[in-house]
Amino acid sequence: MERAQEHVSTGGPDQPARRPGETGTALELLVHGVGGTTPQEMLNDPRTVRITGDNIAAVFRRADDVDAETSTDAHRRDGPVPEAYVWCNLTSGNGTRALWLLLLPFMVVNLAHWMRPTARGRRRTVRLYGLLVRLAGLTLTVLLVAAACEVALDLAAWQCAGTLACADRHSWLGFLSPTVSDGGWWSSPGRRLALAAFVPTAVTALLWYLSKRTWSDYESQQPIDRAPEPDEDGSPTALGRPGFWYGRRLVARLRAAHTAAGLITVAAAVVSAAARRDREPGGPAVLNILGLLLEAALAACAVAVVWVVCRRGRSENRLDRELDERFVRRLPLAALVLLGLALLYAGWERPGWESAGRLPGDMTFGGIALVQGLLVIVLAVVAHTLHRTDPDRRAVLRGLGGPAVAMLACALGGVMSGGVSQRVSDWLDGTGTSIDGPPVLLTWQASVIPPLIVVLLMLFGRLGRRAWQLARAEREAVARDYPVEAQDRARTRRIAYTRAMAALTDRGPRVVAVTSGVTLLLGAGALVGALTTDETPGEAAQGACPVVHGAAETAQALGSWLIGLGFILFVTWGRRAYKDAAARRTIGILWDVGTFWPRAAHPFAPPCYAERAVPDLTWRMATWTRTTGGRLVISGHSQGSVLAAAAAWQLAPSARKRVALLTYGSPLERLYGRWFPAHFGPAALSSLHREVDCWRNLYRLTDPIGGPMRLPGDRGHQVDHGPLLDPLAYGRTDSLPLPAPILGHSDYQADPAFAEERRKLLNRLRPDLPGPRHTGEPPCPGPDADPQGSSGRSSA
Where are the transmembrane segments (predicted)? Predict the structure, then answer.
């Protein structure tokens, strides 16, 4: 694509304003939503030029508008100059990124960090909330590496290679088998474990590399470094703080800590088996002492890891470019040295040592599950305390959204780790009798999945019934919205059904609450059952009544297949995205929603695209308004409206007053305001309305994502346009002779209200500073200025 040089000065935002020609040029900065699009589609012109940016994210214009600021042609000033900010390659531009689905638990626990309730005067409690989420994220890293150790060290090297029947079926393990290899050098249990340890070590190294590489590619863009202005103190949201979108210091610290935790987990799995052998009567005294020293060193390193995770949270009040070198470099290096010593220790010759049963330390999964459950419970108590200080009736689950999502992240981690272990065990042990298989707890956890699915099916059944009731109620509303049309029962039913399904989005918190609560209870039951019986559910139920025994056997078998099927679906969906652009686009939409937030709780989560997109938009708006003195409307659709709001908050208050905001299909209040009340709650959105020159929001009742901003008092009427009619026409009209489609979340520009609201916003702005707000003119077009009438609904 043709690349044009910048025709407008892009100097720093603090440079003196230069307004060549005072042409009064108006700019509309378009920001697309989830899934992405092309600049040609956004600008409705096949000839587009990249004004600034790179192949990852860039700003485009029509070829005819490249020199709009310097041209004196009158026709160029009749309307705004449209620019398109295209950021879809940040999330869905490459098929390999679909494999980030495997990092889903890390992404979900990172979301829980940002879901804390709004709080006033509770700084220590807020810090405690963030600390608990970071510790939950650390347990997920340990769980993933422990699952890799279970597969490579326990199932493959310890159990299968140590059993003749299993080793015979898998020739690639023959050199590790004492019988098949006739006592070969690698057949010693310690050496088998040392060799297999390279698999979880490689997993840890890969996670470290991906985190470091994605930070350099996506999140290393620095926001505008500016001094705070007096009138921006006490902002109700942290999104306007200078260092909010630059978390380099925390991510580097967490990356070092999680990498060290992974290496320590591998070393502990190797050392525990050898140390237990050395502590047996008649064991070598020197090796016994070395084992004790190694275990003590690993425990000390683990304490250091926890301390680093707990020591510091995010630095948002300033742009923090410094790194904690002593932690970032020395901690992983120390863990790597301990791992090397552990491998040497385990590989030492121990005559007569044979592997039998499961690898020692199989209760690791039970300990992780117990710690995760306790963390979630304490997190719920902290979240409830925060919510009580400043109650928000729109916040999901009365402020407990974060703990519920953290519980889901732990459950996802358990499903993925257990699914891998179960399927590898079934693959290695074809007859089901040669090896003991994975730890008992993983089998119990798999067995609770069928009851969970039954509960969810009942819940979805109730939601379906509710949707049917809403659809019936909406039929009368559809008739009122199209009073002059001859009613078609099929058409009315289709519109009503679409509205009812869109309304189910507001029932999402109930689904999360039920899933999280049931998961916590069933997980606790599985943990108690595994600890008290040390048997699988089927074995533990022997001797009970036939119904109980049959249910236990069925749940165990079905759960094993379901947990494995879930993991296989993750892998196959990722592989499909390599060749299927539609699948890659779908996965990209998931990341558009899930990776908006910076990595504050888990460094191995997928990268935050907003740490690139928000500085891009902020720099573009700040430099353009200062160098041209022109008018600017930032127009955001769907997730693009969230980026637009975040970028507006990053502007200096003096620049923010020169910008108007147009949002449509926006989840700012419906999703972000409810799930992230501390950052997008009513106080934050109200402050944004006060600080920008003007803000108008468009939405439809058929849109499952977008909705009104619901600002209190008259501010709600000043921001929200009445719900747009969808479809634009009920039947065939002179202007729409063919049936109009139900647009839902897309094509808001097709509604005449879009162009009208954009025109009003541009008329509100001036080439120089905007007029005072205490004049008689309403600060934004309100209902009195609405040309569509009192209903607030547009028509064709």
Answer: 128-148, 193-210, 256-275, 287-310, 331-348, 363-383, 395-420, 440-460, 511-531, 558-575
